[in-house]
Specification:
The chain has 237 residues and is an alpha/beta fold. The protein has 6 helices and 12 strands. The strands form 2 sheets. The chain has a 6-stranded parallel beta sheet, with helices on one face. Strands 2-4-6-8-12-10 form a 6-stranded parallel beta sheet, with no helix packed on it. The longest helix is centred in the N-terminal third of the chain and has 30 residues.
Length: 237
């Protein structure tokens, strides 16, 4: 599982790096008056495409794939509209967002695994023997305290929203890997003082911040990896 996470992370970083290089070249050509800067700025919806592709490469759940695919589709539609190839009027087509979210919610209700939050939610959750979290916050906030004797990681996504996950009542048997994805949102993790936190995240106009005290040993390690795109991820104890 860890090898799979690492290989997928490298692929996502390659996609992200190439995308940033292409955007940089376009802006450079605009500054050199080789192309019009206005034309470059017209491709701003490509941010959604890039974020969606990164999410697709970096997720291991069907829900994450649906979210990534939705971001890619939205970016493509907005880009084609800016290029006057199609007429995609957001003021007319905005109900599609509700339809898409409804399909997303029906899927999660059928699988019963993911926690999709569009409102402020607080509470506690026993992860049981599974020890894996799989949470998505869209246009809202999610705040929950989870407890398990064998936390194994999982996936946390904040899309134009916020996630606050309290793990201080949990424990790790060795090492756990937690995938985070914050796009125009934030993720806050509260961990026990005996956990060693390793941040392997990639911030894009965002940030990863660790506010933890070093434990006496490294017997319990939490590896936090993923992306903060115009968002933030904070880990503290």
């Amino acid at each position: 599982m860890k090898d799979n996470l690492k290989s997928r992370g490298v692929t996502a970083q390659v996609v992200l790096g190439l995308s940033v290089i292409v955007l940089g070249v376009l802006f450079l050509l605009g500054n050199l008056d080789i192309i019009e800067t206005r034309r470059v700025l017209g491709f701003w919806p490509a941010v959604f495409v890039i974020a969606g592709i990164v999410k697709l490469y970096d997720t291991q759940s069907r829900g994450g794939q649906l979210l990534g695919g939705g971001l890619v589709a939205l970016g493509i539609l907005l880009t084609l509209d800016r290029m006057h190839i199609i007429d995609f009027n957001v003021h007319t087509m905005w109900p599609l967002f509700f339809i898409g979210f409804g399909v997303y919610t029906l899927y999660t209700a059928r699988t019963g695994r993911r926690r999709i939050m569009i409102d402020g939610v607080k509470g506690e959750q026993d992860l049981g023997g599974e020890g894996v979290v799989d949470i998505t916050a869209i246009l809202g906030g999610f705040e929950r305290r989870v407890f398990t004797p064998d936390f194994r990681g999982g996936e946390v996504t904040a899309f134009i929203g916020g996630c606050s996950l309290d793990l201080r009542a949990s424990s790790i048997q060795g090492e756990a890997v937690l995938n985070v994805f914050a796009f125009w949102g934030g993720v806050t993790l509260k961990v026990p003082p005996d956990w060693t936190v390793v941040l392997n995240g990639t911030p894009i106009m965002g940030g990863f911040e660790e506010k933890t005290i070093a434990p006496p040993d490294n017997s319990k390690r939490l590896i936090v990896r993923g992306y903060a795109i115009m968002g933030g991820v904070e880990v503290r104890n």
